[in-house]
Amino acid sequence: MNVADAMTPRDSLVTSVVPGSRTDVLDRLQDDEFSSIPIVNDETGAFRGLVSREQLIANPDEDQLAMLVEDVPTVGPDAELEAVARRFRDGDQRRLPIVEGDELLGLVTITDIVHAIANSEVAADATADQLMQTGVNAVHQATPLTVAERELAFADEPYGVVLDEAGSPTGMLTEVDVLDVARIVEGEESTGDSIADDDDDWKWEAIKAIGSRYLPTRNVQIPAEPVEMFMTDSLITVGQSKSATDTAQLLITEDIEQVPVVSGDTLVGILRDTDLLEALA
Question: How far apart are CA 44 and CA 210, in angstroms?
Answer without folding.
Answer: 31
